[in-house]
Design goal:
Blueprint lengths: L1 H15 L1 E3 L3 E4 L4 E6 L4 E6 L3 E6 L4 E7 L3 E2 L5 E2 L3 E7 L2 E7 L6 E7 L2 E6 L7 E6 L4 E6 L3 E6 L4 E7 L5 E6 L5 E6 L4 E5 L5 E5 L7 E7 L2 E6 L3 E6 L5 E5 L7 E3 L5 E5 L6 E5 L4 E6 L6 E8 L2 E6 L3 E6 L2
Parallel strand pairs: 1-28
Antiparallel strand pairs: 2-31, 3-4, 4-5, 5-6, 7-8, 9-10, 10-11, 11-12, 13-14, 14-15, 15-16, 17-18, 18-19, 19-20, 21-22, 22-23, 23-24, 25-26, 26-27, 27-28, 29-30, 30-31
Length: about 325
């Protein structure tokens, strides 16, 4: 009976929402594993073919393609690495990829058309995400749900912190890059000061299982849960709320002003845009062809998404 009510509520909201087709479809030729905003009118993609691709929205073409070195798999075959996490800051790009050895990762920095190694397989670090805090410091996350701050100049870790005993899921930074939100299989989201590692909040009570993706903008933290809950917490007031989906919610993002949340909420890979203050759903974005892994807002009316396929879509909310 409960499932029937959830499905009825979902389809009713679908009828009351404006369904939008993509304004732009970008074919990356390979599955896009991560997607971030670049300088100006560009978006940057990391692919499972070992490439970094920079696409200019205004020019409607790729302006840069960088191929990472191939790796050996456990059988000794030479294959493309998978670029699993990327970040852009002030002209610099971070690229985290598989090393092909023992589950360890390679982390590289690309700047001024040059690429240098930060960590290689020899460092034996099972990293799953890396982001810039500023020009000199990056925050990295381990599969064990440990996070650490690494200084690029001194080449030393400034702190390492174990957040809980659950497996890591996702890490997001706010626009100032001074707060990090980290989710895990426990359903808890930990918010910490990125520079010091001091834990600011432990958020719980919405998701009872794995939080696949998390985002943080202003005072809002959004969650995408395995338990089919699209949730959000208010760090300032302590308020929290969620809406129930009818499928695993693999991805989420917040608009820059934190008034809108985007959630993948059904088996058709549609993205639901939610006004958090009212829980209304003004837009449904369709066009993704497979499981969503990344959603980003460029501004309050422009949304990008990548899935486990070649295509990145862009929608204009109007």
């Amino acid at each position: 009976m409960k499932r029937v009510i959830v499905l009825f509520t979902f389809f009713l909201s679908f009828l009351l929402s404006k369904v939008i087709e993509p304004t732009l479809v970008i074919d990356a030729n390979e599955s896009v594993k991560d997607l971030v905003l670049g300088p100006g009118s560009t978006v940057i993609m990391g692919t499972d073919g070992g490439k970094l691709r920079v696409y200019d929205i205004e020019q409607k073409k790729f302006t840069k393609v960088l191929q990472l070195p191939k790796i050996k798999d456990f059988l000794g075959d030479i294959i493309d690495t998978r670029v699993s996490s990327i970040d852009y800051y002030n002209g610099k790009i971070l690229m985290l990829s598989d090393s092909g050895v023992g589950g360890y990762s390679d982390l590289r920095l690309h700047e001024n058309n040059q690429t240098i190694d930060i960590f290689t397989e020899n460092d034996k670090l099972p990293l799953v995400e890396a982001k810039f805090i500023d020009d000199e410091n990056i925050i990295v996350a381990f599969l064990s749900n440990e996070v650490a701050l690494y200084n690029l100049k001194s080449k030393k870790f400034l702190y390492k912190k174990q957040l809980n005993q659950s497996k890591f899921s996702d890490l997001a930074l706010n626009s100032k890059r001074d707060l990090a939100a980290i989710s895990s299989e426990s359903g808890e989201v930990v918010v910490l000061e990125a520079k010091s590692g001091k834990i600011v909040k432990r958020l719980s009570g919405i998701n009872l299982d794995n939080v696949y993706k998390v985002d943080i903008k202003k005072d809002i933290v959004a969650t995408a849960g395995q338990d089919r809950r699209a949730g959000w917490y208010n760090l300032k007031t302590g308020a929290k709320d969620y809406i129930q989906g009818n499928f695993l919610i693999y991805a989420t993002a917040l608009s820059p002003d934190a008034t809108l949340g985007a959630f993948s909420m059904d088996e058709n890979n549609y993205i639901t845009i939610v006004k958090l203050a009212t829980k209304s759903k003004p837009f449904i974005l369709k066009g993704q062809k497979s499981t969503l892994n990344t959603i980003i807002f460029k501004d309050n009316s422009t949304v990008f998404a990548a899935s486990d396929d070649n295509f990145v879509n862009m929608w204009i909310l109007k």
